[in-house]
Amino acid sequence: MSEAVAGAVAERFKELYGADPEGVWAAPGRVNLIGEHTDYNDGFVMPFALPHTAVAAVSRREDGVVRLHSQDVEGGVSELRLDSLTPESDTAWTAYPAGVLWALREAGHPVTGADIHLASTVPAGAGLSSSAALEVVVALALNDLFSLGLRGWQLARLCQRAENVYVGAPVGIMDQTASACCEAGHALFLDTRDLSQRQIPFDLAAEGLRLLVVDTQVKHAHSEGEYGKRRAGCEKGAALLGVDALRDVPYDELDDALSRLGDEEEVRRLVRHVVTENHRVEQVVSLLESGGTRAIGPLLTEGHASLRDDFRISCPELDLVVDTALASGALGARMTGGGFGGSAIVLTEATEVDTITTAIEKAFTTAGFTQPRTFEATPSPGARRLR
Ligand code: GLA
């Protein structure tokens, strides 16, 4: 499978640039099992990699030029000079790969140019980290080609910097780390404060379970402004409570913290979500490590309620997926990713997949919503070289 994909992408590279690429790399999208909007609060997250990947065929250049082409976007090859890359000057897709080159050079790495052709199967705008996959695949390719010797978490940091500063989106570190560091058959328990990680075995099929990803096809329009507002509200909460980040508010001191926030109602809701969500991640980890996979279902569902009612980033389509799945026998369900559209995940017995999928489709028809796209997600490998 990946050999065939690598071959096709290499072939296209040769048509575009007139020579074989020096290599071909892949980096996946992700779903987040639990731990939403905790990463910019120094908290815990637990994503796993999807089988869907961004693939890059890349060769080095030595003349300070980067040429970029994407299979998935109309238009030809874009040519940029490395010494004129300027943060927030590019609003096209090219900002993601160019931002990575910018971030590498800014950090002092001797990257002298590249020819890059990209093709991705990660659905765009679906909350499944298609942007992080693009960034990470480019970073990994350059890391290998220029022998930079950077580890996965270091590449993730550089990619986050590319997105924060060059693209101008105030995202946390989860998506890039998931794409760079996840392993097949595992979910990644990540402490976003110091990026320490633990791979947690998550073999659903062996337990007769499935995890459905339901892409509502609602594009998260205006989400960037709302994301920034939530982030600012969390930072305000931390400042009012006198801590570095909301991660530092212990779960068993939540009531006290909330009472200290007085009439700051909105901040109280944000704080309650972050503190309870960090606690849910820790509970999910201990359940998975003690073989209680089915028992994580209610925690996923609680996470959704918290994102809907306290963090206020769900939407009618996401709520309909969750409510319908639960009413049709799912073990748990929640929105995943940044919110305001995108995808939900549903944990279910393998035997209930058809019933739940059909019920969701019917509910969407009745509500007059565009049909969602549903697929089963297996925890897949993180970023890697294909050839
Ligand atoms: C987006 C961001 C992540 C994270 C999630 C919410 O995916 O890129 O950093 O904040 O939203 O958990």
Description:
The structure is a single chain. The protein is α+β, with helices and mostly antiparallel strands and 387 residues long. It has two domains: 3-199, 2-Layer Sandwich (Ribosomal Protein S5, domain 2), CATH 3.30.230; 202-376, 2-Layer Sandwich (Alpha-Beta Plaits), CATH 3.30.70. Helices cover 41% and strands 21% of the residues. The strands form three sheets. A six-stranded mixed β-sheet has the order 5-4-6-3-1-13. The protein has a four-stranded antiparallel β-sheet with strand order 10-11-9-12. A three-stranded antiparallel β-sheet has the order 2-7-8, with helices on both faces. Strand 7 (186-191) and strand 8 (196-201) form a beta hairpin. The model has no long low-confidence stretch (mean pLDDT 97). Alpha-D-galactopyranose (GLA) binds at residues 32, 36-37, 39-40, 171-172, 174-175, 337-338.
